Amino acid sequence: MLDPLTSLTNAFTSFLFGKVETTRLPVRTSTGQAQAVYLPTAAPGLGDSGVIIGREVYSGKGYIYDPFQLYGQQLPAPHWLVLGESGNGKSALEKTYVLRQLRFRDRQVVVLDAQGEDGVGEWNLIAQQLGITPIRLDPMAALDGGIRLNPLDPSITTTGQLALLRTIIEVAMGRGLDERSGFALKVAHAAVTQGISDDTSPDRQPILSDIVEQLRHPEAESAESMNVDIDDVRAWGLDVALVLDRLVDGDLRGMFDGPTTAGIDLDAPLIVFDLSHIDRNSIAMPILMAIVGVWLEHTWIRPDRKKRIFLVEEAWHIINSPFVAQLFQRLLKFGRRLGLSFVAVVHHLSDVVDGAAAKEAAAILKMASTRTIYAQKADEARATGRVLGLPRWAVEIIPTLTPGIAVWDVNGNVQVVKHLITDAERPLVYTDRAMTEEGASDRELEAAVAERAAAAMERYPDSRSTVA
C-alpha cells in the first residue's frame, strides 16, 4: 500500500496531467503458462499448399509459395520477378524452387541458362542429376552438327514465322522495319512457304537461306501484284537479306540456318537451353531469346493441363529490347490461360526501366504479381521501391539484407523471408562458390534482419505491410 504522501502526489499529478499509467508487478510463471497469457501473433501467410521456400524472418513461420495455387485468388497473374545483386542467393532460390516444383507430376520447366563456368551452363549439374541433356546452343558446335532451332519450323504457324523473322531483323537493326522492307520480307516468306508446299519431298523444311535467296531474287509475281518494279522489290529487301545472311553465313551461322535438330524431348520434366557459350553483351542474345521464346510458344505450350514454368536468367535481354519484349508480352498473355508462370531474373531494375523498351518493360513488370528483392545498394533499393510500390520499411532494409534473405511482395503481401536449402539440394545449388552465409548462423542472421525490420516498421506505422 502506498504511503499518504505518495498518494497525495499521485492525485495532484493526475489532476494536472491526467491519469498516471499504473505499474504492473512482475509475474513469475513458466513458459508453458506464459504462451497462453501472451498469445503470439503474425500476419496470415499464403496458405499451406505449394512448395516450401523457407521461413518468415519476423514471425518464424514457414513460407510456402506456389503461383498456380494462388492464381485467381490472391494473385492476378502467376508471373514472378526476382531482383538483386550477384552473390545474394538468387541462383540458389531459382534452383531449389524448380527442384521442389518438379516433385509435382503435373509440372514442367524450361530454363534459359545464360550463365556458366568451365564450358557448361550453371544448370548442367541439376540436368545431369535428372538424367537430362541440356540443349546447348553454340555457334562453333553448331557447325559440327550441334543443336539447331529453325525459325521456319513447320510446327510454327506461318503468321508466327513471319512475326519471328520481323523480330530477328528489328533486333539486329535496332529499329522497326519500314513498310517497303516489310513487304519484301512478306513476299519472300510467302514464296518460300508456297514453294516448299509444292515440293514433292514431304520432309523438306523451309530454312533461312531460302528466305535470303528469295530476297535477293524476288519472284516477278510479287512485284506484279503490287504494280511495282521487280528491281524496287529487290532493293527494298536488301537490308533484310544482309541481316538474315548473318544467321546463315556470318558469326551466328549454324544455330538457326537448318532444320530443327531431331530428338529434342519437349516432354521432359526439365528442359534446359544452355546459352552460356553466347556472348551476353552481343546482339546474338536477344535474337536467340526471341527465337527460343516463339519456338516454345508454338511447340511447348499446349492445352494438356500441365503447369509450366519458363525461367529466364539475364532477362534484361528480353525486357530491354522493344521487339523481343513485345513477343514475350504476347507469350505471357497467351500462356497464362494455359498454366504458364514466367520467372524473370534481373540484377537491377534500372537495367530495364531506363532502357529503350521502358514502355514494354513496364507492361511486363505489371504482369509480375510476385516480386522477390535481394540485397541492393541504397539508391537502387529506393528506385526499386518507387517502381514496384514497396512499403518504406521494406525499402529501408533491402540494403541491409544478408545472403539468402529477401523481401517478398506477393500482390501486396510483403514479408521478409529466409530461403532454406536442404542437405540434398546443397551440392546441386552451390556449384561455383562457397556459401556466403558461413560467417554466421541462420538464427543470428534472421534475428538481425528481424530487428532491423521491426525498427523500420515502427518508424513507418502507416506503411503498407502485412508483417505483424
Automatic annotation (TrEMBL):
The keyword Disulfide bond does not apply. InterPro entries: P-loop_NTPase, T4SS_component. Keywords: ATP-binding, Nucleotide-binding. It comes from the Bacteria. The keyword Lipid metabolism does not apply. GO terms for molecular function: ATP binding. Pfam families: AAA_10 (PF12846). This is ATP-binding protein. It comes from Streptomyces luteireticuli. The lineage of its organism: Bacteria, Bacillati, Actinomycetota, Actinomycetes, Kitasatosporales.
